[in-house]
Amino acid sequence: MPLNENEPVPGLCLDKLSLGYGNRMIVESLDLTLPTSAFTVLLGRNGSGKSTVLRACAGLLKPKAGTVLLDGKPLAGFTARESARRIAILPQGPAAPEGLTVSDLVRQGRYPHRGLFSRWSGADEEAVREALELTGMADLREQPLENLSGGQRQRAWIAMSLAQQTEILLLDEPTTFLDLAHQAEVMSLITMLVKSRHKTVVAVLHDINQAARHADHIVMFKAGRLVEQGPPGRIMTREHIRRVFDIDPEIVHDVKTNARFILS
């Protein structure tokens, strides 16, 4: 929180947020400030509310109560185009029409910056070029998505999100269904975006050890409530993991990376 109470909190802030679908409540009275220019991972068991919170942060789910704030202003007050210029979201398992090339997909990321009848501009082309370069997809730009490996497809989708040129990137299970090599590719890309490009990245992950190794900040949920949050070194304890996941893990300390990992 800022030292001056009248100063708006930069980035995303959730104030007494309650979320649900129909009459079913998923998240209740959540207060959470997401660090800017950092990689935050949302952890918890299935059904704990992680993806629901992510959707609300993108403005895709209207709160039952409370507010999502962006730089101190209610996100509900932004138009869809205004929001998409500030926040990009990549849902789990996105799908594209058959035959769509990498370049076609990435160009779609420019929609928030273009008017209904505006022509494709040099700025649009540069944004697409940079997104392809950052994700290592430039040499594959003319390839149909269905010809790519799982890791390459995921990087293409991330490139589309980067073409939006937002400062905030929300990722829902970006490594699910990828093999270990492709998981490592995606996590390395996320780390680079945060460290070199100062992006604010918030991701839902199922792999606790991935979070321990790569995240700057971890938020743990259980049954729709925030249990604990903080840097991985403080969060990765037997007590916290037992409380959230109902398991009794063995924790090891990697002296090389100074990270803690679960063995069992």
UniProtKB/TrEMBL annotation:
UniProt-listed Pfam families: ABC_tran
GO biological-process terms attached to the record? iron ion transport
Q: What species is given as this protein's source?
A: Allorhizobium borbori
Task: Give the UniProt keywords, A-Z.
Answer: ATP-binding, Cell membrane, Ion transport, Iron, Iron transport, Membrane, Nucleotide-binding, Transport
Instruction: Name the family.
Output: Belongs to the ABC transporter superfamily.
Name of this protein: Iron complex transport system ATP-binding protein
Q: Which residues form the ABC transporter domain?
A: 12-248
This protein's membrane topology, according to the annotation, is: Peripheral membrane protein
**What domain of life is recorded for the organism?**
Bacteria
* A molecular function (GO) term: ATP hydrolysis activity
Query: Which cellular component, as a GO term, is one annotated location?
Result: plasma membrane
Q: Give the signal sequence positions.
A: none
Q: Record's CDD domains?
A: ABC_Iron-Siderophores_B12_Hemin (cd03214)
Q: Where in the cell is it found?
A: Cell membrane
